[in-house]
Amino acid sequence: MNQEAKRHATPASPSSSSTTSLDSGGSARDPHRPPPLSPPSPAMSAAVSPLIAAQLNYLLAHSPLPLKVGQVWAGSKNGRYADRFTLLVPFCLDYIKWDVVFNAGYPSVPPDFVFPPEDDDFHPLIPVGDVKEEKEGEGEGHLSKSSLSDWNSKDPSRLLALVHELRDLYMHYQKKRIEELDDARLKFEISTILSREGIEVCMISSHDRPEEVKFAVPLLDIDLNKLVLACPWRHQQKIYLQVVFPVHTSYSSAPSAPRIKLVSSSELKSLFSVEDVKLPPWLDGMCMAEYLPNLEENLKTQVLEAVASIGARRCFIEALPSLFGRPLEADPVFCRRATVLVVSGVFTFLVHFSIPTQFPKQQPILTLQSSQHFNSQGTPILSPPINDYPWSPRWDVPGMVERIFDFLVDECLNFKKYCNETMPQQQ
């Protein structure tokens, strides 16, 4: 491309674009400020008794678990207030549904809980003394009388404490169910692995499939939230190994290997995607205690590399102003996105940079957006994602930015032609 064309492909004036600080102190919010409360719950869209609403909203705002509220309804057809709701409680990498039943006529009375049919033998609200022929140690699976007898409807934290206590009892209930199975391998796994902090286990029952047992094993003794400066995550981020064993009786064939996969919250993908991790093979006769050390060692290395790559992406974004001017927008925490405004003659367009977690091994994906051409819906015309431009991870960062700029000098002409050809078809 000749030098005349290069002079026309110039960045917009820095004074006309917004500034995003990418220094080490930049953040989307003050890290010392408490995290924002969750969005208004479904309870607030219905008329909920004030005392009950206070309990529910405190539960959603302060629980360390990502609790959710499903349906909200009134127990009385003519009732003024809704007084019951379905609570979705995270457990073993899934959600269990409990119906929480208050009485709007007597809002100071503690709630009842209705558990699903598959847990019909889970009775945590039965006082320990009322359980007939109670076996030694079985009382651990029941809620003591004091947990509900000191209920105070004016204390909004009471429902939170009750739900968490019930969840702990549900964990004990699921563990006990599995210990009673006639499966030597599962008995061994439980005896060797459940001492590990944070492990959850549950039965998976289905009418059309054999019974299975699922383990959710938290990995890495690392606080992932503290690895990222000014991270916006409200809940503690964890990576889990999900292990699903088929249930075998003592007279069945040799046990097969479990199904295994890594699981994390969608929020963690901004830093690290577990889908990119290749799991080591599960060898015949292997148990979880043997499998985990090698997996955790490899996973820790990859997570720390992902954290280090934030710095590489930050350097890339900070190098953009030398040729493109200050970014209009940029992600100051994970440095995954940036947008610049470019002018070529009378043609003005945006360049969106999507920077992968594997940067610089993987190059940024570019998307061009016209500021002057719109489709029939009135939205700006976009180019397809572009990742076929010259790239080498061995280039220094200024060289990467310069190569992209040189590529866009030519590509902007193709994009302008594409926009002009697209417009008549939309009219």
TrEMBL record:
The UniProt annotation puts the region (Disordered) at 1-44, 133-153
Q: Which SUPFAM superfamilies match?
A: UBC-like (SSF54495)
- Extract the coiled-coil ranges from the record: none
| Localization in the cell | Cytoplasm; Nucleus
Q: From start to end residue, where is composition biased (Low complexity)?
A: 10-28
Q: Does the keyword Transcription apply?
A: no
Q: Which residues cross the membrane?
A: none
Biased composition range(s): Basic and acidic residues: 133-143
Q: Which keywords fit this entry according to its UniProt record?
A: Apoptosis, Cell cycle, Cell division, Chromatin regulator, Cytoplasm, DNA damage, DNA repair, Mitosis, Nucleus, Repeat, Ubl conjugation pathway
Q: Which GO terms describe its biological process?
A: cell division; chromatin organization; double-strand break repair
GO CC terms for this protein? BRISC complex; cytoplasm
Concerning InterPro entries, the annotation shows: BRE (IPR010358), UBQ-conjugating_enzyme/RWD (IPR016135)
Q: Which Pfam families match?
A: BRE
Q: Which family does it belong to?
A: Belongs to the BABAM2 family.
Q: What is this protein called?
A: BRISC and BRCA1-A complex member 2
Origin species, per record, is Phoenix dactylifera (Date palm)
